[in-house]
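Hi R.,

Here's the chain you asked about this morning:
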Amino acid sequence: METAKDTIHHDVGLEADGDDDTPALSSHALEALKEFLDEQNRALAEASSAAAVEKQGEDAVALVTEDWRLSQFWYDRETAETVAAEVLALCQSIDSPAVACIACPTLYAYLKKIDPNVPAQLLEYDKRFEQYGSEFTFYDYNQPEDLPSSLKHSYPIIVADPPYLSRECLEKVAQTISFLMRPGEPYLLLLTGEVQIDRASELLGLRPCVFRPHHSSKLGNEFRLFTNYDPGTRLGGWEQA
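And here is the predicted structure, written out as tokens:
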């Protein structure tokens, strides 16, 4: 079968520049080159993700491959287990617990691994997670309240990991959180970049914890975990100003 690389090798056409006769790639060759480079990038991303899972050990939860085009970056095992343990501790402290996981499939997977009976709903754009059946809800942050009415005001515990580090994205995710929150005093956890620290406080009344989340793929942005409640000694407590 002819590969993209073969196509580039055989189909590269050179067009002369009208001014100085400098050879230039034809539009067909440029498109073939783009396809080849995209395929190479996907292969590298898959290899990196597989290596990260192998490094974390046999007990790590298997997830689909990260799709960088969807701004997907899975938590490392320590982060996923730490946040899952916190959520499960909160579940034990309230009657009729229910957890909404907004754009954080790693957390959902670890919650179900540790306690298969925990009532949790994954709100996620990537339809590969439809494998979770009725506990998957398609979610596009651009339509923050375009969700089933059965989810409205149903969750006393909400964990969100907005896909982008923009104010617009956080504002829309905040709308979704408001839609999902059960009346009373719900527990909110937000995992996002440190650059959002002021916005997290302004939009949701959250404070950063000492615990620092990390991802399987090394990211350049520093990430933080924010809560609307004092976790005490868990998560290292709230960071002191």
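One quick note: The chain has two domains: 29-60, 68-234.

Cheers,
M.
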